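Lab notebook: predicted structure, single chain.

Context: the supervisor wants predicted structures on file for every construct in the current expression panel, including those that have not yet been purified. This is the next one on the list. No modifications to the sequence; it matches the entry in the shared construct table.
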Amino acid sequence: MKIQKAAVIGHPIAHTMSPFIQERLFRLSGIPMEYEVMDVPDLEAAMPRLRGLDCFNITIPHKSAIIPYLDEIDDRAKLCGSVNTVKVAQGRLLGSTTDGPGAAVSLSVHSLSLRGELLILGNGGAAKAIAFQAAEHPDFHITLAHRSGSYEKAHALAEGLAKHARAREDKNFLITVQSYEELESACKRYDLLINTTSVGMYPNIDVSPVSETVIGRCAAVFDAVFNPAQTELMKLAQKQGIKAVGGMGMLVCQAAYSHKIWYGTEFQNGDLLRLIHDAQAELERRFGG
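Prediction complete. Output recorded below exactly as produced.
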């Protein structure tokens, strides 16, 4: 196979972990590649160069902005309104999102799943991707928590999930929209709490998006924040003996899922777990952790 030309695009993008992760994945798959970091302030100006690649990844702020420039996007990307993976085939740009599958694979690697009673904190792109991934299971139960001022976003996501479920003739799904204040005073228990907000992310690491009381009503916690490795949310969960998984796994597994789209490659759980560990060590080295 010829050397594959791949890249990650975004702006700014100096601290991306994608080269470290993707170079390791390409080595595992045995596919020769050159993986480039492209700082792209002007997406339109970069399109001719991107069409010359074999594949590329996309990060903020271009995940939605890239869509009008693509020749085709898959159904999952349409639902989420977001693309983070593009395959270039005979000059055509084919867009997908791997955020939802990446979260699902990461949870599976850690013996968790997007089934049961789910509590999702946040209403942005990651929340939408994970919620629609969970909604692929019949009879899903999701509670969407929102801050003051973001009710409309949460309600729009709830309506989108309901429409998707009805189109599949799923009659037993349940979607609840709650404010953080309502969440604190409720007594409902959850199988998995999923934090998709940036609360607790470096450098503001000493805060949790919810209280110990809410955490105590959850059987497990998944924090999409990957820096630091142990967020305050995770520490509060572990303090109560609750299993907690950080976000590096999602970052690695969504990158791994992009290889399935590009080349049909699938990776062993053991290889993914080692890469998650090594990527976290590399992140801590960079940030002096």
